[in-house]
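User: Sequence recovery, please. Input:
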């Protein structure tokens, strides 16, 4: 499934990041998060059984009204191994570098034996990094290994890829929600990423720099162009 999504999210279709176009704080911190070196990132997961998000060390539920700005270039895919209800191993890579970095299932380390009739063992996992539109500009990294969770992330990836190819605003401003569905007679939950607005990269940069307010960002406002000072002419 992940490989089929990557073609919709081609790095060549995304705007390049430069100091002039994007505030470096988000991308640098997001890059740390995806490589495992980020210390200021709260990890966010979702339970399909309880319908609750688990944020950070305190495993708090997330504010459903909090807006988050998703950086399209932080999507990752990989593997996670579950055993005795705990993560015992994981591997991940940028979706844009899957051709060089992806690890095949048959090459994964065996942490068995696994209990029969459970979801123990290796599962695919995909995720992304987002910045909270709050005073701290808090960073969260969401990932999911459930089928429904991967589908939700995949749907967001596809739409970002479509917008990138069409040169439309491709940075989603989202809230973390949820919905219910029935599977084999049981009620389950899946995460939903409600897109409040699709914003331009320049607008995201302006917001992170303090040149746009959250209200202006959510309204889709573009940053004001700075007037160039007329060069003074030298007297002959």
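Assistant: Recovered sequence (236 residues):
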């Amino acid at each position: 499934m992940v490989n089929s999504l990557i073609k919709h999210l081609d790095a060549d279709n995304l705007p390049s990041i430069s100091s002039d176009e994007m505030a470096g704080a988000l991308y640098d911190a997001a890059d740390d998060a995806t490589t495992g070196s980020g210390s200021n990132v709260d990890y966010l997961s979702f339970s399909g059984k309880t319908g609750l998000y688990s944020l950070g060390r305190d495993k708090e539920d997330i504010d459903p009204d909090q807006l988050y700005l998703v950086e399209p270039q932080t999507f990752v895919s990989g593997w996670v191994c579950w055993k005795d209800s705990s993560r015992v191993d994981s591997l991940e890579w940028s979706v844009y570098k899957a051709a060089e970095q992806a690890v095949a299932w048959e090459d994964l380390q065996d942490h068995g034996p696994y209990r029969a009739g459970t979801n123990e063992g290796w599962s695919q996992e995909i995720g992304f990094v987002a910045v909270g539109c709050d005073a701290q500009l808090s960073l969260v990294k969401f990932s999911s290994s459930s089928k429904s969770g991967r589908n939700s992330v995949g749907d967001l990836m596809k739409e970002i890829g479509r917008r990138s190819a069409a040169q439309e605003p491709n940075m989603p401003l989202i809230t973390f929600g949820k919905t219910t569905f029935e599977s084999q007679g049981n009620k389950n939950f899946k995460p939903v990423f409600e897109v409040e607005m699709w914003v331009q990269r320049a607008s995201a940069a302006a917001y992170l720099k303090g040149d746009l307010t959250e209200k202006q960002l959510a309204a889709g406002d573009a940053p004001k162009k700075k007037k160039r000072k007329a060069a003074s002419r030298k007297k002959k």
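Residues 147-165 form the longest helix (19 residues).
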